[in-house]
Amino acid sequence: MPTVITKEHVWREGNICHFVGIITFDASYDDAGEAVDLSPYMKEIMYVSGMNTEDAPGYMLVIDDTNFATPASFTAKVFWFDYDAVADGAAITVLATTDLGAVKFRIHAIGKAF
């Protein structure tokens, strides 16, 4: 199953669109991040913030904003805190093929409306 975006709220303020939803990753995470497409909701992303949900303990979502060049998509990367590692407390990249199927993050994206 690919990464899934579940819409919670979408609203418009003039020519600005707000999207709030849940990202659910798939069972085979790509360590380069996963593409998130918001083109059904806005024509261009200006800002995205990510928040953990209760389904993501120990994980952190990082939005790669260098990919905003593709108007309404971005790359979402996941890091985790390996407290058993030698360098306790450091956030490390989630490895490729890690099953993140139960990990969810909430996002708020702001962009240009259609």
**CA distance, first residue to last residue:** 29 Å
* Count of spatially separate domains: 1
Number of helices: 0
* CATH level-3 fold name: Immunoglobulin-like
CATH domain class: Mainly Beta
* Broad structural category: mainly beta
Give the helix level as a range of percent: under 10%
Which segments are poorly predicted (pLDDT under 50) over 5 or more consecutive residues? none
Residue fraction in strands: over 45%
CATH architecture: Sandwich
Largest sheet: 4 strands, antiparallel
What is the CA-based Rg, rounded?
15 Å
Mean pLDDT: 87
Sketch the topology as an H/E string, one letter per element.
EEEEEEEE
Number of strands: 8
Pick out its properties.
single chain, 114 residues, mainly beta, Immunoglobulin-like, four-stranded antiparallel sheet
How would you sum up this structure, described in words?
By secondary structure, the protein is an all-beta fold. It has one domain: Immunoglobulin-like. Helices cover 0% and strands 52% of the residues. The protein is built from no helices and 8 strands. The chain has strands at residues 4-13, 16-24, 34-37, 44-52, 59-64, 73-81, 91-93, 104-112. The strands form 2 sheets. The chain has a 4-stranded antiparallel beta sheet, with no helix packed on it. Strands 3, 5, 6 and 7 form a 4-stranded antiparallel beta sheet that branches. A hairpin with an 8-residue loop joins strand 5 (59-64) and strand 6 (73-81). It is elongated and about 50 Å long. The mean pLDDT is 87.
Q: How do the helices and strands line up, and which of them pair or pack?
A:
Blueprint: E1 4-13, E2 16-24, E3 34-37, E4 44-52, E5 59-64, E6 73-81, E7 91-93, E8 104-112
Antiparallel strand pairs: 1-2, 2-8, 3-6, 4-8, 5-6, 6-7
